[in-house]
Amino acid sequence: MNQPPKIKVPVTARDWFNVIGAWLVFAIVLFYGLHVYSRAPQQIPIRFDWLGHPVADGDKTVMLWLLGSVTLLVINLWLRLIFLSFSGSTER
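Above: the chain sequence. Below: its structure as tokens.
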């Protein structure tokens, strides 16, 4: 079988900075979200009227769904950043 060619792309300090930054953002969002979740009451307002008054309450597990969504978004952006940094031309 034919193997696809392997392209060696040099990793720069900028690439490492991007990776470390993405992991820091991920960790901060995750730990802060878990901290807020642990301190939240069991019922939290989830819907508001035009004046900002709560009109519906929901279970605090909604916060876990939001935390999971943000975590997936950060991972997605991180992977795109890595892909974009390695997909450029290496010729100068």
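The beta strands are 43-48, 54-59.
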